[in-house]
Amino acid sequence: MPKETILIVDDEEDILRLVEHHLSGEGYRVLRAMTGEECLQTARAECPDLIVLDLMLPGLDGLDVCRILKRNDTTCGIPIIMLTAKGEDADVVAGLELGADDYIVKPFSPKVLVARVRAALRRERNRVETDDGKDLVDIAGIKIDPGTFRVTVNSEPVDLTLTEFRILHALARRPGWVFTRSQIVRASRGEEADVTDRSVDVHVVSLRKKLGPAGRNIETVRGVGYRFREKESNNDEHSSTR
Which domains does the chain have, with CATH numbers? Predict the structure, then answer.
């Protein structure tokens, strides 16, 4: 059975060959592009299942490419994993705000990249299968019912504020998905406006404390924001749990 199609975008031939070798070895169909313009053309023509996108491209850079892809009806649903250099936290945040799903810091382990690709594709399959209006979440012993605003951990009720509930629900609905603080603010703000970029960390600290050991599932992504630990994920180089 053929696997998904992955588009790799990088202006370095050595990286293209390396990534193509490892993804092809896993059975994926691999497409290549060396410029932002070529990426857009290939993405529109082939509609790949996922794009591995370097941010530092000649001409049209990775952030511009991401912005254009996410604004196009044909390509907006394609998951994007960004390739970034160390110290590019601002670009990572900007990419995630534009709709990218994850990022990998150069230099990277090919095994880590394959694992991230596999996880991103799994998240997308799960999203398609479950995104049908059913918002009940049951993960890592935590049950979240938005209909009744009830949360239990191992069947024990947990008393959360409305903001804490919304933050937990937003993160847990997309395990493994990296959320910036601004995205968390937008996801958690309802009629109340008691949460800001600066206060997100305070709410998360309180939320982890109330969840007890289960609170360790909320991971800090340094310089970016937070994510809910994916069930089968491995430790990676850009996150830490506090």
Answer: 5-130 (3.40.50.2300), 137-240 (1.10.10.10)
Collect all residues with Cβ–Cβ distance below 8 Å to 81 and sequence separation of at least 6.
50, 51, 52, 53, 100, 101, 102, 103, 104, 113, 116, 117, 120
pTM reported for the whole predicted model: 0.70
Which parts of the chain are beta strand (E)? Answer: 5-9, 29-33, 50-54, 80-85, 102-106, 137-139, 142-145, 150-153, 156-158, 179-180, 218-221, 225-228, 239-240
The per-residue pLDDT string of the chain (242 residues; one tens digit each, 9 = 90 and over) reads 458 999 999 999 999 999 999 999 999 999 999 999 999 999 999 999 999 999 999 889 999 999 999 988 889 889 999 998 876 788 889 999 998 989 999 889 999 999 999 988 888 776 655 554 457 889 999 999 887 889 999 999 999 988 899 899 999 988 988 899 888 888 776 544 456 777 899 999 999 999 999 999 999 998 899 999 987 544 444 443 34
